Amino acid sequence: QVQFVESGGGLVPAGESLTLTCVGSGSIFSINAVDWYRQVQGKQRELVASANSDGSTNYANFAEGRFTISRDNFKGTVSLQMISLKPEDTATYYCHYDYYKNGWREYWGQGTQVTVSS
């Protein structure tokens, strides 16, 4: 399956912007939906946004209007542009997708840390 490497995380002050990128090991035409999740230490991972193969996108309520997800199937990349960042956006952000191999499985990237200072 396609392997993703996330990048773009960092430390920024509140109100600033960051763009996270997942770079795949190949094209991603065959992947139905690629998601960005985030996780605060000690809490469950939560869905941030999804980029679907039909071009549609979905966002969590907290991401609506501030975050934009996009995918480039040829380049095999999925980006998450985040603006107006808040301290509560501090988390590790992961790329994710489901794939079928002897049953449905989940792929998770290694994650990239986003820290927003107040």
Question: TL;DR?
Answer:
This protein has no helices and eleven strands.
Description of the structure:
This protein is globular. It has 118 residues and is mostly beta strands. It has strands spanning 4-7, 10-13, 18-24, 33-39, 46-52, 57-59, 67-72, 77-82, 91-100, 104-108, 112-117. The strands form 2 sheets. Strands 2, 4, 5, 6, 9, 10 and 11 form a 7-stranded mixed sheet that branches. The protein has a 4-stranded antiparallel sheet with strand order 1-3-8-7, with no helix packed on it.
Oligomer: single chain
- Would you tell me the structural class of the helices and strands? mainly beta
Distance between the termini: 39 Å
**Mass-distribution shape:** globular
Specify the helix fraction band: under 10%
Beta-strand fraction estimate: over 45%
Q: Whole-number radius of gyration?
A: 14 Å
Number of helices: 0
Q: Which runs of at least 5 residues are low in confidence (pLDDT < 50)?
A: none
- The number of strands is 11
Secondary-structure map:
Blueprint: E1 4-7, E2 10-13, E3 18-24, E4 33-39, E5 46-52, E6 57-59, E7 67-72, E8 77-82, E9 91-100, E10 104-108, E11 112-117
Parallel strand pairs: 2-11
Antiparallel strand pairs: 1-3, 3-8, 4-5, 4-9, 5-6, 7-8, 9-10, 9-11
Attribute tags:
0% helix; 118 residues; globular
